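Anyone up for a design puzzle?
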């Protein structure tokens, strides 16, 4: 088993005031159409953006994230302003006199196609094409300022060769995969992912147990939040993990070393395992270099596997986060014993019905407290000068989250008495305080009966208090019977059948 993900950097850019673009790293390119593309900046290579042109990777390496660049000439780039942030003057005009049909544009279809070809060859810049279309528009001057801005924006998306490099963060990467391939991340939206991190109490120096079938989206979010401080144990299918998204985050070796993986087939303590065939120094000296390197690689993988198994069996994890294709109940039955007390349990599923069985199972279990299912809803807003408003369309759903708290049940410890502070602790040997508590409750019930009078049947109205006090006395006496056995070990919990 080799390293989890090859580290693309030796230093985390989280410590930098202004992170810069580095060679051999993944970055997100936001194109004029609004779509995003993941590219790798390899030195001396040419990065293609399709119909928007190409540029040399060396021109972008060393620059800062967030600036907008325009492609011009022969695959050259230059910094340009972001036209989407330009302010629009407010006006009282309206569009009642505008008739938007083919007659308003004097340029024919062939003329526009010719302009496109000149733009693709680099003979004509995008802003010049847009200006010609604006000048030939018969009703452009009659439009409102907002309509003019929208018209120019549509044309810029078609003809301007402007792109913006974005730093791969959990926000940008999660949004990219949710739009491009939501099935890959099990339809997990960024707001749902943030709730999972919040419910899971993810922070530095934690020891977390994660079952991630979202191609590494949850693992990446947890690793980014912890920053390499702590331990993350990922449970996965097959012999090798499939945390593909983890490599897009450009984590350093310090962060990647905090992530360990373990297959489901190795979780059980009684699982069959093949012992490793260790070689002596003499045997290694007689091996070829290629075979010797393979031996060292297998040895590292075996030692990492043993360390991951021991980390799981040691237990006392600070949280359990699940986003899996398997049933939640089967995962809980297997991994819940390794979770520490008063630790959160977070389970995600795209379908609510998949979590209902787990919620019922938690309510019946003495190991889980306060299970509840929540659904998140998100509305995005366009925030531009003079044009801030909620978007008209949004996603219908982003899955459901089941949360609970892990509690430790100790049968030998009895919690008795909600009475006054003068009540003594329960003596597990003879139960004297329990008997006095029950007697006091009986006496209070009898006093209420005498004060309340007698009914026609000759019974006091305080008789109900007497019966309740008697029941409490019997339960407390039964709790007092939980003494040590002959072997010195605590006896099991007493069950009241009557």
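Challenge accepted. My sequence:
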């Amino acid at each position: 088993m080799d390293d989890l993900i090859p580290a693309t950097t030796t230093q985390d850019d989280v410590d930098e005031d202004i992170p810069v673009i580095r060679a051999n790293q993944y970055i997100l390119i936001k194109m004029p159409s609004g779509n995003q593309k993941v590219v790798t900046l390899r030195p001396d290579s040419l990065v293609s953006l399709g119909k928007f042109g190409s540029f040399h990777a060396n021109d972008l390496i060393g620059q800062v994230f967030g600036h907008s660049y325009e492609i011009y000439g022969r695959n050259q780039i230059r910094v340009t302003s972001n036209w989407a942030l330009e302010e629009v003057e407010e006006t009282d005009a309206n569009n009642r006199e505008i008739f938007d049909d083919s007659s308003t544009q004097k340029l024919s279809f062939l003329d526009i196609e010719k302009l496109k070809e000149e733009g693709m060859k680099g003979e004509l810049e995008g802003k010049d094409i847009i200006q010609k279309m604006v000048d030939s528009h018969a009703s452009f001057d009659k439009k409102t300022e907002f309509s003019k801005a929208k018209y120019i924006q549509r044309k810029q998306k078609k003809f301007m060769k402007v792109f913006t490099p974005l730093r791969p963060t959990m926000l940008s990467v999660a949004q990219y995969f949710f739009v491009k391939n939501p099935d890959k991340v099990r339809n997990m939206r960024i707001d749902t992912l943030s709730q999972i991190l919040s419910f899971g109490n993810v922070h530095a120096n934690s020891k977390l147990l994660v079952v991630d079938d979202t191609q590494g989206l949850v693992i990446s979010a947890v690793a980014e939040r912890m920053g390499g401080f702590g331990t993350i144990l990922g449970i996965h299918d097959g012999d090798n993990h499939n945390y593909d998204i983890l490599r897009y985050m450009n984590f350093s070796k310090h962060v990647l070393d905090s992530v360990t993986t373990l297959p489901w087939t190795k979780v059980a303590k009684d699982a069959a395992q093949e012992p490793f065939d260790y070689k002596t120094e003499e045997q290694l000296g007689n091996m070829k270099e290629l075979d010797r390197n393979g031996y060292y690689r297998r040895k590292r993988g075996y030692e990492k596997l043993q360390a991951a198994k021991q980390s799981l069996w040691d237990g006392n994890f600070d949280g359990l986060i699940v986003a899996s294709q398997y049933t939640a109940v089967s995962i809980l039955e297997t991994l819940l014993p390794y979770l520490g007390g008063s630790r959160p349990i977070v389970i995600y599923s795209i379908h609510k019905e998949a979590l209902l069985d787990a919620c019922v199972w938690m309510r019946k279990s003495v190991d889980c407290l306060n299970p509840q299912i929540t659904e998140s809803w998100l509305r995005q807003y366009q925030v531009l000068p003079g044009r801030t408003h909620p978007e008209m369309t949004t996603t219908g759903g982003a899955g459901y989250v089941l949360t609970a708290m892990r509690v430790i049940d100790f049968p030998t410890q009895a919690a008795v008495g909600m009475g006054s502070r003068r009540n003594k602790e329960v003596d597990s040997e003879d139960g004297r305080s329990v008997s006095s508590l029950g007697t006091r409750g009986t006496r209070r019930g009898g006093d209420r009966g005498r004060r309340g009078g007698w009914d026609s049947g000759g019974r006091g109205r305080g008789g109900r208090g007497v019966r309740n006090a008697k029941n409490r006395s019997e339960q407390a006496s039964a709790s007092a019977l939980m003494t040590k056995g002959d072997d010195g070990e605590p006896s099991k919990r007493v069950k009241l059948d009557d």
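A detail worth pointing out: Residues 289-314 form the longest helix (26 residues).
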